[in-house]
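Please, does this match?
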Amino acid sequence: MTPAASRDPAGARPYTPRVDTTLQDPLVGRELDGRYLVRSRIARGGMATVYLALDRRLDREVALKVMHAHLADDPQFTERFIREARSTARLSHPNVVQVYDQGADGDVLYLAMEYLRGRTLRDVLAERRVLTPREALTVLEPVLDALAVAHRIGIVHRDIKPENVILTDEGRVKVADFGLARAATASTATVGVLMGTVAYLSPELVLRGVADTRSDVYAAGIMLFEMLTGSQPFQGEVPIQVAYQHVNDQVPAPSSIAAGVPPVLDDVVAAATAREADARPADADELLAAVRTAHTALTPAQLDARPAAPGPAGTRAPGSATEVLGAPPPGAPQPTRALPELDRSPQRHAGAVPLVTTVPAAGVLGDPEDAELAAMLQRRRRTGLIALLAVLGLATVLAVTTWYFVSGPGAYTSTPDVRGRTVADAQAQLTGDRLRSSQTLVFDEHAAGGLVVTTDPAPGQDVRKDGTVRLLVSRGPATVTVPPLTGRSDAAARTALADAFLTVGDVQQVYDAQAPAGRVLGSDPVAGRHVPNGSPVRLTVSKGPQPVDVPDVTGRSRADAEAALAALNLTARYTDRQNDDTVPAGSVLSQKPANGTLLPGQAVTLTLSKGPVQIPVPNVVGRQFSEAKRILEEAGFSVKRSAVLGGFFGTVRSQNPGGGTAPKGSTIVLIVV
């Protein structure tokens, strides 16, 4: 039972859970525990009913999960209900539906949970049937992330299925309903009954009722299969048939059901759903790593190609056994069931049919002797028939047994020796021998990272044909030494850390007057420190000298400009001087760059002024003033007249300047007599 359902991350239309406002429900309108005002009913399941309620104390909407009254007296169901609150309360993760509160109001036992608007993954599959690899992985990765947190603190969910995965309208993925959660120990077993959803039960749950983290991994693999193919791998007319298939059959490759599923996703499903628990990833963390590796290996075209599953989802012929017995079709909501403990006695599986002997009716034979003779003959015929059937049965058993152990599923082969090889090479070898593979990362003091340390079963040992060989892949040594990094380039430091089985942590960049940009100034932990394999190492990297602002030195003398630049550790260089009518000769006419920043030691290019343009001054002494003025003005000068004795004759007696050169446009003074 989930508190709400949601919109899938791929962008399906928003959906708000249908609210049943049945007035006859006695809890609608009631305030529980003096705090929760029940507004309306959202959904009803086999164990509890979910209501939309207002938490008056915190003024927020909550999903109120209320146990059915007829179950409240059952200690087993009450314990499961309370365990859901305790299990979920221990989990603080954005992909887990939060439980806010648990309590009782009289005979009403309730959980106050996070209210989510959206829909379940089951709703999305009912609409779309098949998801693209991108959509499926976008859903699966946060689910595994949430399960990984639960597994780390010793909690097994035990009921992973699309009904318990919520896709919110905000695009978040949430895992709900930890009602079956138990501590992940060897004693996690249910005796007499088998709790869970039959389509997602692991073989060990079916056989022994025992669940650990690998049972959640198995259910997640089944869910990925369903997202990629639109159907569940095992189907039957009654749940017990599906349970037996989990024990006896290998989950088929998704690509064999839905064309277009990439092989790497076939491998993920095969690893997660291996019948032997030891052949699966140990927990959700390991499966998540495999899923992310597969995600990275897929091209955008592969990620967005929708697999082609044959036929419409969940179809059944009218009147079929499935319809009559009420078993849910593929894609329909899968309820959590309590199944009887499986009978594994030989008689249950022998498939024997009792022989029926027809005895002649009385009076068919004439006299008692004839009757006795007939009875004797009948007994002989019956004995011969039984003997013949026994011989035929024994021959059949021997033939089937021989086939089973020689070339059938029970046949064995030797595990190849792939020690010291890369994972890709080892997988290629196993595939060539028609064996499957899974991976487990282990620390090893001698094998380089990424190489196979050994296998399970060990090299040379027996393994079933078409079975799974677990590759124990080296992660390098458990503890390593931080290598010297100071003075190396950033790229060289990263390579050195990777070679030492370490990762790059936070990188702090600082200005440094001595070290060029990109040079490592130090590390934390320092070189020589022993740290766990895979630890992050923080780096301090130089950004080079700190830039300085370029000052404006235009108009200053050369000496002043050089002093101003030197104060900022900048230098001056010069281009050819240029004439200027306004800037005095020897002063800075222009600079490049005019502003911005430079690194210490860099140069500013200065252009000095030569002052105004100098032109020759014509000698006009002895000429008449009017002619002298014309000559000077045509040469580019201004003329000023200064008369002596009234300037009666109009003759230029002298001039200032009297010759040489003068700035163009300057004034020539003429003394006229």
Notes: Residues 1-22, 180-195, 312-332, 335-374 have pLDDT under 50 and may be disordered.
